[in-house]
Amino acid sequence: MTTASAPRIEHHREPLGIGEPRPRLSWTLSEAPADWRQQSYAITVVRVDGEETVEVASSEQVLVPWPSRALGSRERVAVRVAVQGVDGRWSEPSADTWLETGLLRPEDWSARPVGRELDENPESDARRATLVRRGFRVDGEIARARLYATAHGLYEAEINGMRVGTDTLSPGWTVYRERLRYYTYDVTGLLHDGENALGAWLGDGWYRGRLGWRGGHRNVFGGDLSFLGQLEITYADGRRETLATDDTWKGAPSPILRSGIYDGEDHDARQEVPGWSTAGFDDSGWAPVAVRDRDPHTLVAPTGPPVRVTEDVAPIAVLTSPSGARILDFGQNLVGRVRIRVTGPRGSTVTLRTAEVLQEGEIYMRPLRSARSTDHYTLAGHSDGEEWEPRFTFHGFRYVEVDGWPGDLDADAAAGALTARVLHTDLERTGWFTCSDPLVEQLHRNVVWGMRGNFVDIPTDCPQRDERVGWTGDIQVFGPTASTLFDVSGMLSGWLRDVEADQLPDGTVPWFVPVIPTHKVWDPIRPGAAWGDVVTLLPWTLHQRFGDVGVLATQFESARRWVDKIESAAGPDRLWNEGFQLGDWLDPAAPPQDPGAGRTDRYLVATAYFARSARAVADIARVLDRSADADRYAALAAEVTAAFCAAYVKPDGTMTSDAQTAYALAIVFDLLPDSAQRARAGARLAELVRADGNRIATGFVGTPLVCDALTMTGHTDTAYDLLLERGCPSWLYQVIQGATTVWERWDALRPDGTVNPGTMTSFNHYALGAVADWLHRSVAGLAPVEPGYRRIRFAPRPGGGLTHASATQRTPYGEASISWRIEQDELHVDLVVPVGSTAELDLPGRDAEELGHGAHTRSMPLVR
User: I need a labelling partner for 165 at 20 to 30 A (CA). Which of 259, 529, 639, 860 fits?
Assistant: First the structure.
């Protein structure tokens, strides 16, 4: 009997406090006979006033419309689904999914931001974190209790001395003036009859802490440090009481003397306030709070998961440097902070300095630029020991220099007293890859770790230096890989709303979002190819990978305005050949301090992206049944393509920029309508790769495309040569040099072991790891053909001496997988197609074959 999973609610992993009054539903199917297909579905919605079942004749099972009346604020309902096959038989109902809305209307909010009056230097980074609290009484049996919380700054809430939630760095980083995210917590189990207390820690975070390079800027979004909390208690007898932040709250300094995203955290345990968030605490010495303003229209529920600590990593070695410093090596470049368990004399201080690399045996801080990246913990002197980790900061590091440790560091580290706590947006893993080459597998692991470390509420460029901003170009090129490895649908659709909020009135898309003040090159904001195109290409990627039409509808105007802006900038000749451009950023041939000066004409890059984005808007419009828009932008794309060919393609099929990125763009963006030109471009690209000794000759723009361009034009062997090259620059050069994440520069660590002298030398950037998507789609051979993997293409292309490879994809329809191996000159392939999907199997030298759901096995002589 076919069975359906409990429905998934929008893109939420945990549908508590959602912001959608009509959430879309998805489910997967299993145990279906080979010829089974869904014909209808029936969704049951269970409310307090009864249940309703709606039957729909449809084969859809991904993000189907809400079948009932809109949900109200705070409404908690259960949903389940049953499906009918073409045989007319209905499945048993699925398990229930419980979902609950947050506060959907501005008038639902009575809370106001509250915090201490701060007497501090607004230009100082040594600013103290604060505490706010209030006692209250519970009178009766509680049915449920919810805390709706956010802050100007970062917060952690406590009730009766217990931490609320498992999230960290909340409420995250949004365009605060337009969108301040709040989270909903089930705190029923933390309350008890009688006296209770609610409190919150507050730290600067992104809201008012230092942001940006060249000294940065402070108080970018505001100068206050405030908690906004609304505790709603529903009693068993139906009463509802609300405790909201207001002028009855009190505040005090916290033991966190200094905290910043870049600089780290200083905590003096001697100044801790025992019991401050419990009912019996005497707060008579605390000061009344100041009450601030926040337009409740700007309070938004999350669309994706929060940041959490997801893994603990133990050190693999304790080193002694030439200077005598003690250094922990965690064996992995990661993002998070260090938790310590320590016993020592009162007033002694442990210092933790973090870095990604060593130079001459010492931690090397220069790549961090002005980020202090140092934590201090001053002990209270408790005889039974103390445990601490920072609250409001994070670091990118592999190595930690430990100074002032009061015990035996070697023994304590071995006993687990110092642990790296990995944090990032708590995304669900969806894509896995393996193969017979350990170096390629390590490359894939590096891509995964780099993505984890740079998805910290927003998609950042790097997690360690004085930057960590949401560069639009980085995620534009990495979007397909991100969407393969993890379910980024909710997180990135939410971030795209921030992009639109910061988009200029004329359609210009900023270089990074949220926008912060900058210097010289980046100010004023100007349109730039590949970066601004995130508003057209990332929604399309999310639609293709997750089957989400809603993100296209939400972002269409943003995408259209961007293309209209480019059209205006290019003018009647349709060539975007004026103005500031970054081109093929960080082409290895570019000078260290001029990374935009690569081998490919930056205006060729700009015009290619103009054509690609115009076509994307046409495609989006077609999906949305906006036929007039689809025709207009398709015609524009055709005009730009013709202009591109006339300006940049020579009669013999070579290009005016005889560079790998130029050919890769022309091929993958389908800018060469003539098949002979396309074949010549592919051949020339392969020649250039061989001429460069199979070493990388592309930057941010070309790198995600070059292997695809080679594969698409019949030069798969050359693509493998490029992948497997070990000399500098190459993907595997980094692996051989000991990389555990993907670097910003191909030669961030030079062959002589020294760090590249450029001021942009991060050892954790994800953009150049975009090749991982090609590993899944071409090496293993698993790719979507229709949105959400409704139709899958299995097309493995063995090569490079690999003897096996596999990919597993957790699609919206269920798990799809492929595994191939070569044994005695025979290719053996094992496949799984999820129920609800169909597939095409394209093996080398064979005609394509149609497959239905289920497991399939094929064997054939290997075609060389």
Answer: 259
Q: What is the Cα–Cα distance from 224 to 204, expressed in whole angstroms? A: 9
Structure token digits, residue 182: 């709040």
Question: Do residues 226 and 113 touch, judged by C-beta distance below 8 A?
Answer: yes
Whether the ω angle into residue 514 lies within 30 degrees of 0, i.e. cis, is yes
Q: Can you name the residues that pair with 3 across neighbouring β-strands?
A: 30
- pLDDT at 122 (0 to 100): 86
pLDDT in tens, 569-628: 999 999 999 999 999 999 999 987 788 899 999 999 999 999 999 999 999 999 999 999
Supply φ then ψ for residue 267, to 5 degrees: -125, 125
CB 822 within 8 A of CB 798: yes
Three-class SS string for 25-59? EECCEECCCCCCCEEEEEEEEEECCEEEEEEECCC
The first and second tokens of residue 232, run together, are: 């709603």
What pLDDT is attached to residue 123? 87
Is 226 strand, coil or helix?
strand
**Total count of residues recorded for the chain:** 864
User: What does the alpha-carbon distance between residue 259 and residue 390 come to, in Å, rounded to a whole number?
Assistant: 9
Contact present, 79 and 96 (Cβ < 8 Å): yes
Among candidate residues 10, 100, 467, 500, the one labeled active-site is 467
Alpha-carbon distances of 439 from 266, 486, 690, 765, rounded to whole Å: 40, 22, 21, 19
Decide the pairing of beta strands 3-4 and 29-30: antiparallel
pLDDT at 191: 98
And the tokens for 334? 């990661």
What pLDDT digit, counting tens, does each position of 452-475 carry?
999 999 999 999 999 999 999 999
Between CA 621 and CA 560 the distance in angstroms is 9
Unique residue bearing structure tokens 């004399």: 345
Q: What angle do CA 558, 560, 563 make, to 5 degrees?
A: 110
CB atoms within 10 A of CB 845: 10
List beta partners, residue 142. Answer: 235
- pLDDT at position 733 is 98
The answer to whether the Cα torsion of 514, 515, 521, 525 is positive or negative is positive
Measured CA to CA in angstroms, residue 790 lies from 471, 522, 545, 787, 812 at distances of 31, 41, 10, 6, 8
- 855's CB contacts (< 8 A; 6+ apart) are 830, 831, 832
Q: Is 158 a catalytic residue?
A: no
Three-state DSSP state, 261: coil
Which residues in the chain land under pLDDT 70?
Answer: 864
Question: Pick from 402, 412, 422, 376: which is nearest to 319 by CA?
Answer: 402
Q: Residue 432: name the closest of 836, 815, 27, 28 by CA.
A: 815
List the structure tokens of 655. Answer: 């290009």
Catalytically annotated residue among 100, 265, 386, 744 = 744
Q: Is 518 helix (H, G, I), strand (E, B) or coil?
A: coil
CA distance 500 to 561: 10
CA dist., res. 371 & res. 364, Å (int) = 12
Task: Verify whether residue 156 is a known catalytic residue.
Answer: no
Find the angle CA(762)-CA(763)-CA(765) to the nearest 5 degrees. 75
How much is the pLDDT for 863? 74
pLDDT for the residue numbered 267: 98
Question: Strand 838-841 relative to strand 791-794: parallel, antiparallel, unpaired?
Answer: parallel
For residue 168, give both structure tokens: 């960290």
The pLDDT assigned to 534 comes to 98
Cα 728–chain centre separation = 29
Whole-model pTM: value is: 0.97
Task: Select from 754, 789, 850 the least CA-distant residue to 359.
Answer: 754
With contact defined as beta carbons under 8 Å apart, do 369 and 465 qualify? yes
Closest CA to 778 of 699, 862, 719, 856: 719
Nearest one of 759, 766, 770 to 743, comparing CA atoms: 766
β-strands 804-811, 814-823 pairing = antiparallel
Instruction: Specify the pLDDT at position 758.
Output: 86
Question: Using CA atoms, how far apart are residues 379 and 341, in angstroms rounded to an integer?
Answer: 11
The pLDDT assigned to 673 comes to 87
3-class DSSP assignment, residue 457: coil
